[in-house]
Write a structure and sequence with these properties.
By secondary structure, the protein is α/β, with parallel strands linked by helices. The protein has two domains: 17-37 and 295-380; 56-279, Spore Coat Polysaccharide Biosynthesis Protein SpsA, Chain A (Alpha-Beta Complex). It has 14 helices and ten strands. Helix 4 (100-110) links the parallel strand 2 and strand 3 (114-119). The N and C termini lie far apart (65 Å).
């Protein structure tokens, strides 16, 4: 009996070690094959190995605003003073009751390439953002549509140029990065980490030929593409999805490109309370259920292997064998060094805040938040909708 238990224990340990090694290698594959996309693209661009269009077609920048008077006053001039020859800025003022219209009227007198329109406050629709974007698209006179939000600011006067240079003859979608400013609070640092890691993932998958999303703070597509896909006709029952579902439905290896240059970035202020951030994440995650099955499978790989890695690490530590403990700690350290190196090098290039030991906390905590929002939260939050 003792021999059987000993044999069973050895088999159990061998199986645990095998699984731990496999998920360790899967994690390394994600970070070295995918999440290094920004660093890899930086090197290729420096060597002149990425083909960009030399044409500079007309561009319509579309910005949706809802009670964004203060942000419009500070950030709108940065969109209106871009170093680009042929472009217009269209602001759709969605039922604002602050001073947004007065500010837009003032800037329209100063900048002849600014146009704005208003959506009545009484308009009843599930997603005001989709309506605002649709109105902006219909008002646009150019085929290239570049999107951002009223609470964003482009980091460079070459933002338009950097995004538009990716529109070759076959390009329909261009995906950029929209980050958040970090302050000293833990919430701000967590939001910045979460935003950057999500961006590293969707940019990586798009670069590898499997685009699944973008952020409305910094993305572009053709007007013809919007009409061909019938706009948001298939997603009008969802309060969100204005920034990812078109790409998820129609993006592919041939028609989607990414832009990661520092001059192409837009930045925003993060949410100031945990409750507001959760509300924002709930809205962002609400569309994941209607992603294509291919996108869902790809998105499951990394968090599943990550959970198995941490679980395997704990199991290895509880076996009471010194060699297993040292082996587990060695693999944990290797993964952490690679992970933090890829993240911090990308953050440094994007002039974002770097992270240290907190990375392990975020690495464990954020998937639990996402799991909750995708499961139990749907039960507790049923029947309520977040607008905008």
């Amino acid at each position: 009996m003792h021999l059987i238990l000993s044999l069973f224990n050895h088999i159990w340990v061998a199986v645990c070690c095998g699984i731990f090694i496999v998920v360790f290698l899967i994690q390394l594959y994600y970070y070295l094959r995918y999440y290094r996309v920004v660093l890899r693209r930086k090197r290729l661009e420096r060597k002149g190995k990425i083909n960009f269009s030399v044409e500079r077609p007309g561009v319509s920048v579309i910005i949706c605003a809802h009670n964004e008077a203060e942000n419009l006053q500070h950030f709108l001039p940065l969109f209106l003073e871009q170093n680009y020859r042929n472009y217009e800025v269209i602001v759709v003022n969605d039922g604002s009751w602050d001073d947004s219209e007065e500010i837009l009227k003032h800037y329209a007198e100063l900048y002849p390439h600014l146009y704005y329109t208003n959506i009545p406050k009484s308009t009843r629709i599930i997603s005001h953002k989709k309506l605002a974007i649709t109105m902006g698209v219909k008002a646009a006179k150019n085929d290239i549509l570049l999107f951002s939000d009223a609470d964003c600011r482009p980091l460079s006067p070459f933002w338009i140029e950097q995004m538009v240079r990716n529109f070759t003859n076959n390009t329909e979608f261009v995906i950029g990065y929209g980050g958040y400013y970090a302050n000293k609070s833990l919430l701000s640092r967590m939001i910045c980490y979460d935003t950057q890691t999500i961006a590293m993932q969707y940019l990586a998958f798009a670069s590898a030929g499997s685009p699944y999303m973008a952020v409305g703070r910094n993305m572009a597509y053709r007007k013809e593409t919007f009409y061909r896909l019938k706009g948001f006709a298939g997603f009008l029952h969802l309060p969100s999805g204005d920034d990812d579902l078109l790409i998820n439905a129609a993006g592919n290896r041939e028609n989607t490109r990414i832009e990661t240059n520092i001059d192409s970035i837009t930045m925003s202020l993060p949410k100031l309370s945990f409750r507001d951030w959760i509300k924002q994440k709930r809205r962002h995650l609400s569309t994941s259920s209607v992603y294509t099955e291919k996108s869902k499978m790809k998105l499951m790989g990394e968090p599943l292997s990550r959970a198995l890695f941490y679980g395997g690490f704990v199991v290895m530590l509880t076996q009471g064998e010194l060699y297993l403990t040292l082996f587990a700690c060695l693999l944990f350290l290797i993964r952490w060094i690679i992970q933090i190196s890829v993240y911090n090098c990308t953050a440094s290039y994007w002039k974002e805040r770097k992270t240290g030991i907190l990375l392990i906390i975020w690495d464990l905590f954020l998937p639990l938040i996402n799991l909750y929002l995708l499961s139990l939260d749907k039960i507790f939050y049923r029947g309520r909708r977040d607008k905008w």
